[in-house]
Amino acid sequence: MAKPEVAGKVRHATTQIRRIARDPVLVVAILGIALGTIIFILYPLLKVILLPSADNWRAFLSRTRYLTVTKNTFRMVFLSTISATTLGYIFAYATTRIKDMPLRGLFHWIAILPLISPPFVIGLSFILLFGRRGIITYSLLGLNFDLYGWHGLWFAQTIAFFPVAYMALAGVLSKINPSLEQAAQDMGAKGFTLFRTVTLPLTLPGIAAAALLVANFILADFGNPMLIGGNFSVLATEAYMLITGRYDTNMAAVLVSVLFIPSLVFFLAQRWVLGRKSFVTVTGKPSSMDPPSVSSVTKWVVFAICSLIGLLVLSIYVVVFVGAFTELWGVNWNLTLANFEYTIFRGQELWN
Question: What does residue 335 show for φ and ψ, rounded to 5 degrees?
Fold first, then answer.
């Protein structure tokens, strides 16, 4: 049986190649994409991996600082992935499974808002909100709160990357056939028992795929650790400091290679989960039933969580806008256009 299958695949591949060869424009486009991938992705990646010497790798394994930075990186990946995926699941559940959820449409747009903002916005906003002169910690609560460190970074990465989990999990939850939950409900499963035995198992592959995707984003995160990490260094920021501060490109290449390995593993694991670990339900035709209703306590607890996070996300962008018109944040609240004057007329970085 194996030989006919192989022969069929070969014939199919040959047919596809002949079909492509008949279209010169398509051939040129494919060759251009392949060439661009080799020049701009594969070649630089190989250069980075092959740059370090054996002495550089021995130095990495023998120096406490580099091992600590590596441990910090995976610590943040573990913590932020769990919290961001959990928060993304709550938002996805609120917008797809609780049909009578107040402000359901607003929660959807709030959840995707951080995805379309520049990477430094959330870190900067957290400093303006919760820093030593933050409008919440200092001006409103009178606290001398130190945001910088792993706890602030954890908070920032959770808010920054829960939309990634939300986008993945909203699709998973919306495709669950409500008739299964209704059938389980008719058999006596209600509340948390219904969620634990039916809804959650059906979404486990999606949760795993979303978590792996979030983990990859956190591994690659540079803006948040750079702004609010403080003395808590991770591989991305440490590699940057080695290049800009010490011009030690070999050691930086070691850190980048160490960072690349788990990224590749997470990517391949996510593809495997998406390709193999899926639960499907076979029914006669798609169901038009609504998901079963949840208890009032569940609905309002989920609403409270989404509202609190939603207010935080909206405040992130409000403080950036207000801060642009403020003389000196936390000290002088007078309104001014001097910041725009500097940025537009004297800010070379803007024109660059």
Answer: -80, 145
CA separation for the pair 107, 91 (Å, rounded): 7
Spatial distance between the Cα atoms of 183 and 45, rounded to a whole number of angstroms: 52
Token readout for 23 is 């279209």
| CA distance linking residue 312 with residue 307, whole number of Å | 9
Predicted TM-score (pTM) of the model is 0.85
Q: Which of 57, 105, 129 is nearest to 322 (CA)?
A: 129
How distant, in Å, are the alpha carbons of 53, 125, 130, 334 from that of 319?
Answer: 47, 6, 11, 14
| 110-163 residue pLDDT tens | 999 998 888 788 999 999 999 888 888 888 888 888 899 999 999 999 999 999
- Smallest CA-to-CA distance from 228 within 168, 150, 345, 290 is with 150
Residues 107 and 113: beta-carbon distance below 8 Å:
no
CA 166 to chain centre: 9
CB 221 within 8 A of CB 160: yes
What's the CA gap between 267 and 288, in Å, rounded? Answer: 35
201-228 tens-digit pLDDT: 889 989 999 999 999 999 999 999 999 9
Entry field: residues in the chain:
352
Do 135 and 330 form a contact (C-beta atoms < 8 A)?
yes
Q: Which two tokens stand for residue 241?
A: 């400091």
Residue position matching structure tokens 């194996």: 2
